[in-house]
Amino acid sequence: MAKRLASTQQHLDIYDIEQGLVILKNGGARLVLSCTAVNFNLLSEIEQDAIIAAYSALLNSLSFPIQVVIRSKKMDISFYLDKLKAVEGEQTNRFLKKRIASYRHYVEQLISKNEVLDKSFYVIIPYQEAILTASENPLKKLFSKQGKVILNKSAVLKKAKVQLEPKREHLIKQFNKIGIRAQQLNTQELIELFYDIYNPDLARQQHLRGAEEYTAPLVRPAVEG
């Protein structure tokens, strides 16, 4: 009898990603904003006071919950080193060729001794229609076997977009006052984000070509069940 692969996908909360929204198995949805950062310490005291006041106004204007996520990951600059090596090989000037080689070796030694991290900032706006009542037992759901999820995806998308889009515009406007540029992640960017989160090693070696060509699970089991 052939062994079945352990199903990791069924333990994820994600049902699908479509129209720039993450659809959850419980009927909810999430909109993800990618945000830039502000180097607060480099600002003058007047500019710092202005940002603090704008941030305070943003918090006071919120009538809905948000989630702030800061993601740190090791930067992959292999493509940059490969480009330097290619430029070095094409260089005919011996002096410049030597300088490029010296710089490339410096970068290689730098990343070998120090972990270069890249920080990404996200703000998640939730949509949730289903509400857990007092009569429902959460333990029953936790320990019960998860069957096939049946969800009216089009209905969830329609309701979620009506609620989330005005909130998105409000947050983008408020962030602009602080000097932060916020932009909603589209479907392809969301897929790449979760693919990178759940498969960090594989994502560094193989990039997704397009959302329409991606049909494999976000998470692959490491062992056979």
Summarize the structure.
The protein is α+β, with helices and mostly antiparallel strands and 225 residues long. It has seven helices and six strands; from the N terminus they run βββαβααβααβαα. Strands 1, 2, 3, 4, 5 and 6 form a six-stranded antiparallel sheet that branches.
| Helix and strand sequence | EEEHEHHEHHEHH
- Helix content bin: 40-55%
Per the principal axes of the C-alpha atoms, what is the gross shape? flat
Strand content: 15-25%
- What's the helix count? 7
- Distance linking N and C termini: 12 Å
List segments where confidence is low: pLDDT < 50 over at least 5 consecutive residues.
131-135
What does this structure look like?
The structure is a single chain. By secondary structure, this protein is of the alpha+beta class. It has two domains: 158 residues, no CATH class; 40 residues. It contains seven helices and six strands, in the order βββαβααβααβαα. Strands 1, 2, 3, 4, 5 and 6 form a six-stranded antiparallel β-sheet that branches. A hairpin with a 2-residue loop joins β1 and β2. α2 packs antiparallel against α3. The protein is flat and about 65 Å long.
